[in-house]
Amino acid sequence: MAKKAAKVAKKAAPAKRASPKPRLLSGGNPQIAKADGDAPVQAYIAAAPGWKSDVAARLDAVITKTLPHVRKAVKWNSPFYGIGEGWFLSFHCYTRFVKVAFFRGAGLKPMPPGVSKQKNVRYLDVYEDGFDEKQFAAWVKQASKFPGWRA
Questions:
Q1: For tag attachment on the chain, is the N or C end more exposed, with fewer CB atoms within 10 Å?
Q2: Helix residue ranges per DSSP H, the chain
Q3: How do residues 55-64 score in pLDDT, each as one tens digit?
Q4: Crossing angle of helices 51-66/38-47, nearest 10°?
């Protein structure tokens, strides 16, 4: 009987598995569970394919250097950045670029080039060849001072 109990206990023990690699959605955007903090943002960055991971890491580094106390989260499979209660910026991987959304971008000087159907939102499309980090840091600093978008 002791052998049977040991066999049952052995079967019931959960198998150890490596954590699965996040699934890539259309355009190569990683599917990361909604969560607050730096860890899910870093998981998103690590899961982004190829050069998009490098761009995402650079965006995150510039944001963090510009605003050391920035709040981070992953929502809707995209990293979000905020100060206080609201969010001022997010980005998302697409097939040919990484799209940065400034939620109050219409108030930035100069305004980011990408227009939106929403009057206050402006976009910056970042391609494999990089982006103007100095200008991006200036936009991040300005954007953090506007009331944040609440999700």
A1: N
A2: 2-12, 38-47, 51-66, 133-143
A3: 999 999 999 9
A4: 150
